[in-house]
Amino acid sequence: MAALDTNVVIRLLVGDDAAQALAAEQLVCSEPCTVSMSVLMECEWVLRACYALQAAAIEASFRDFLNLENISATDIVLAQRVLDAYASGLEFADALHAAQCPDGQRLMTFDKNFANSARKAGLRGVTLLKS
Length: 131
Known about the structure:
It is a single chain. By secondary structure, the chain is mainly α. It has one domain (2-101). The chain has 7 helices and 5 strands; from the N terminus they run βααβααβααβαβ. The strands form 2 sheets. The chain has a 3-stranded parallel beta sheet with strand order 1-2-3. Helix 1 (6-14) packs across helix 2 (18-30) and helix 5 packs across helix 6.
């Protein structure tokens, strides 16, 4: 089993370097591969900042990618929660931070939009810290 780094996932999603994309495809065809949430978080930033993709396209790409044979998230339940929150409008990193917070624990923030968006996305532990 192999764990994939951000640059490997990007080559698989974008295919902008033919030789690296082919090597990445051969790897995932030959053995099961996992992707961590931190790698997906970095991929989201690369796809948004460098390739100017919108959140809806990134979310769909991630869901398609994680449904490929031989590809799985290291934590499938967490990945689903994050992608659902991301699809509802939360920034990917915020969705990951909130989704990783254990039940019964609050994630304290000064970001009012994050707290409101998390609540709307069903991530109830995000709490506004007032100054």
